[in-house]
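Re-run with default settings, no changes from the original entry. Doing this only to confirm the output is reproducible before filing.
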Amino acid sequence: MLRHLGQHLVDSLLDALRKQCQEPAPHFAELKNLLAALAEEFDVALVTTNYDDLLYCAFPQGIETGFDLGNNGVFCQDRILRRATWPCILHLHGSVHFDMDQRRDDFHAIHWREDLTRFHQNSFGRNPQHAVEGNVFPTSSIIAGYGKTIQIQRFPFRTYYSELDRLVYGSDAALFLGYGFNDVHLNNAFADYRDSRNRPVVMIDKAPDNTLTLCSFGEGHETARRALQIFHTPFHQMSALGKNYPDTVKDLIAKTEFERCVDPALRLSFWYNGMLEACRNPDKVLREFV
């Protein structure tokens, strides 16, 4: 009964998300503005754990997903692994555009469907996935719940995670938009990010005014604290508006500024004003990469 409930919930979640994605998105122009500014300075690879298609729709140019839209949306890993063009997007946990169609040779193969009004996923009506440990997971076009390391063994997810390692290794900078650093299988891709290249790490998140800064003996924003651990950055090296003593982020938010690491060999910046304000201040975001 629990397995059937999980299958039904996955299908219901996707149905609800697809309906939302067909509605007008508030502040969509601001998001496009930020992505356009990034694309002017960098070859951009978008990596997302979200199911929605905001980033896919907002990018100002054509973007590679790995799916051949001219061939019924079939996934072709060569489009990712042998890719020589930019930009690209990796939906690490799936997308509202992912579908499964019983008319195909591979009953459970995931393909891309551009039209969000017609889908055949039906996880509830498919055989589940069985792990050797005895766990059972829904056969879905998205990855949800526990056991993600088992679920990502299917395509296109296997290809996406292979490409993620390559992207992280070859990147000049990393920008995190609202990521909570809760997925160990994604965090591990950044385990060796700190090297002689001194690549900047910039994080965009939202926090209330009374949140303590990271230089407050490491007692600040929970997501930011996890980021300090992953990127091997001591909290006492963080500075807010030139101050490295305990304080709240209120002044940072009022002045739309970043808390930064003062060690030039550990470039890390944290933004507490939220995604919308970051979209409205692309110049300040780009400044952190200089």
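The mean pLDDT is 89. The radius of gyration is 20 Å.
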